[in-house]
Design brief:
alpha/beta
């Protein structure tokens, strides 16, 4: 499947989150524009205005964050009016960006975490603009504190409501740049990241991002991205080239509540002997990631009733308990991988 097709499939997987964010920004553009219009309406005339943020945003976002301007305002002084006009321009700029706001292209030497954080700060200017309007209307704006809100509003400054409508990102990158450990700093709220990988990739880098509430997918099948659409929390996916042989395929889905066994599905693991360096990711680093995924998969496997190793009790009919116990010990120690 050509890379552009995979990017389109990735954008489809995050389409609802993308449309919710854009609908919210569009609503804010309209409402802040309405506030500016009201400044020019003579006293006593109708100042009413529709408060809708769009059907897709209904019930999913806090209207006070993106449409705090709906309350009947008092008159703005010239300084506050200038701030609101600037904020309105930023909101229009974010909205005009369209799908480009949600796409990144990386080179082999780019830092994945830094580029994603920068893109989120660019999109986050919409949140900074909404904050600026609120501060200007209430005469609480202070240049020394809030002056950068319209130029750069990083994720670290987003509140819980803003993190709940985080703009998704689809990142196209070469396998050498697939170093996702740093993404743990930005994976929060409802943020969805889909990494469309070109060329050979490390074996199991996304295993470092598995936490109970984070959906993590590593696959070469675009259809396997479907769980992202239903997940309300953070999600990270790596979409590998089809037919990739030296990378694992797995799904960690928090929707399957309960044990790790319910959440984790491992469909394929490369043999350690087949690993080779990819960019700055060494064979030993990849072996560690594969080992971690093996350990998690082993923990997810059904255990015996007493919680001990398989074979400690409840052995399957016809199987030698000693053989099962020996096999389990080999798996836990990693010696099994060294045999042969």
């Amino acid at each position: 499947m050509p890379s552009d097709d995979r990017v389109e499939r990735a954008l489809e997987a995050v389409a609802e989150d993308r449309d919710v964010f854009r609908s919210a920004v569009a609503g804010a553009v309209d409402e802040v524009g309405g506030l500016l219009e009201k400044q020019r309406v003579p006293a006593g005339e109708d100042r009413g205005r529709d408060s809708s943020l769009g059907q897709l945003a209904e019930g999913r976002i806090d209207p006070e964050r993106f449409a705090s301007v709906l309350e009947e305002p008092g008159g703005l002084d010239p300084g506050a009016t200038e701030l609101v006009e600037r904020a309105h321009g930023v909101l229009e700029d974010v909205h005009r960006a369209g799908r480009d706001l949600f796409r990144l292209d990386l080179g082999a030497d780019d830092d994945l975490r830094d580029r994603v954080a920068s893109a989120l700060a660019r999109a986050g200017r919409a949140f900074g603009a909404a904050r600026t309007v609120d501060l200007a209307r209430s005469n609480r704006f202070r240049e020394e504190v809030h002056g950068d809100y319209l130029d750069h509003f990083p994720q670290a400054m987003w509140n819980s409501e803003e993190r709940g409508v985080a703009p998704p990102m689809v990142v196209r990158l070469p396998g050498e740049a697939l170093r996702p450990a740093g993404l743990a700093e930005v994976v929060d709220g409802s943020l969805k990241l889909v990494l469309v990988v070109e060329g050979e990739a490390p074996a199991a880098p996304l295993v470092r991002l598995i936490t109970p509430g984070t959906l993590v997918v590593q696959t070469d099948d675009p259809d396997a991205l479907a769980p992202i659409r239903e997940h309300d929390g953070p999600a990270v996916a790596a979409l590998l080239p089809q037919g990739t042989e030296r990378a694992a395929r797995f799904l960690h889905d928090p929707a399957a509540e309960g044990t790790l066994a319910a959440r984790l599905t491992v469909e394929g693991l490369p043999d350690r002997d087949d690993l080779r360096p990819v960019g700055r990711c060494t064979r030993s680093q990849q072996a560690e990631e594969i080992g971690q995924l093996r350990a998690l998969a082993a923990d997810a496997a059904p255990a015996s009733e007493n919680g001990g190793p398989p074979g400690a009790s409840g052995d399957e009919e016809g199987e030698d308990p000693a053989d099962r116990l020996a096999g389990w010990l080999l798996r836990q120690s990693g010696l099994e991988d060294l045999e042969g």
